[in-house]
Amino acid sequence: MHKMDFQTFTKRYDISLERICRDIFRSRDKTIRIKKEETAVKNLTLILDAALNLSVEKGFDAMTLRDLQSRSGLSMGCLYSYFSGKEALLHLMQYQGRNLVRDVLHEVLKDEAIPQNKLEIAIRAHLYLSERMHKWFYFSYMETKNLGREEARKAIESELLTEAIFVDILDEGKQKGVFFFTDARLVAAIIKAMLQDWYLKRWKYKKRQIGVEEYAAFLITFTGKALGHFPSDLMSGTASPNHSSAGGEQI
Amino acid sequence: MHKMDFQTFTKRYDISLERICRDIFRSRDKTIRIKKEETAVKNLTLILDAALNLSVEKGFDAMTLRDLQSRSGLSMGCLYSYFSGKEALLHLMQYQGRNLVRDVLHEVLKDEAIPQNKLEIAIRAHLYLSERMHKWFYFSYMETKNLGREEARKAIESELLTEAIFVDILDEGKQKGVFFFTDARLVAAIIKAMLQDWYLKRWKYKKRQIGVEEYAAFLITFTGKALGHFPSDLMSGTASPNHSSAGGEQI
DNA sequence: GTCTATATACCGATAGAC
DNA sequence: GTCTATCGGTATATAGAC
Q: Where in the chain is the DNA-binding region found (chains A, B) (predicted)?
């Protein structure tokens, strides 16, 4: 998928809360007591939407099930038909978010061979994903520390997997003589840090009216220069205007 | 302060928990009911040490005052002689950490004139500070969202102040023709993101045996290349060995 | 499937003995 | 200055009516 921008990205991949909830229902029929798919998906959407918003506002820990009750419009008893407890809800959301990110990242890269293009695509896909699923990314990052032993291990594994994608691209580019650096893992680590800043410091970029396309172009130029590779059409530093909300409502 | 490394940094600046607690006692004699300085500083040190460790382990919200009681060795009633409530403790710690960082950053930069050196010093000082006060930095970052309206405003102000230091250095370098970029605030923002990665993803760098000197050298080289400025003695990419623990126990 | 009502436990905070 | 004992409030979770 070349010459990708935010709009074509959101059109190509169905990243909606409803779709995620349907995936959850189909893969977790044991822990969810409700039988009818339509009812289950509708209520799951209400629950996850409320839980995401409350978690971003005040933190998952500070969110009480009474908050979740009133925000979702469902009752206490009804909530417990969809998950076995507050902790199970946390794990459910973390798990589903991780898998979606992993799948999309592999999907966008699968038909590309040129390292410079791969790097640009991986950066853009990660930024676009976190733009589309901003609350989800913010939530996943902030609540990692509250996970239990086994779940924390999976979160770390996921972090390293994303990084490994960048390490592979960098090493390939180094071998082909288009990237210049000494330690691929260090470069991948700070690329990841810069990607994460986009959703962790969203308030800052929003206040400065910097959109996702502009940030993407800047990041690609900056890393390109640092790696000794200069993307031809981006060196001017001019970026597209802000249309960060072109892809519909954020989830 | 030129040719700064971690060891000389920690020797030059007294960044100990005891010193911070003494500052707190002297500046807050109204909210602390204890009169004798020796007693007060001793117990404050116990309290803050326990609070920092518990917050990093499970989060400030999840930490109960009973946890704090057993970890510090003091009783419930005694704790309340040192702060008026859990929220006041949070604000106290945030406030004191912010001020120390602000003061040290201004101190290290005050006698330097060359932009390239300024950039290197600012990067090193921030990394060394966060290395020395790792728990403090991690705590400050993670608990920002739990602050009240007014305190959150101060935290944001502090974030932007640190960034402004980098913006000034970058603009000066651009004017003098040694740095090349289009938007100083974007560059400063991602430099900050890379600095923060050092204390937010500490587990990763520790596992890979990357010390603070090595990370500092890498960051300076990477940003130097991206800005079109090549530090002469760092281009080889070779870095000092890991002596991240040379400066005593972390706080 | 969804609701209300309630059980049980633990939180932050304080009063008052020592 | 420091302790123990306890209050009032609220959390998660469940039982059983509809």
A: 64-83
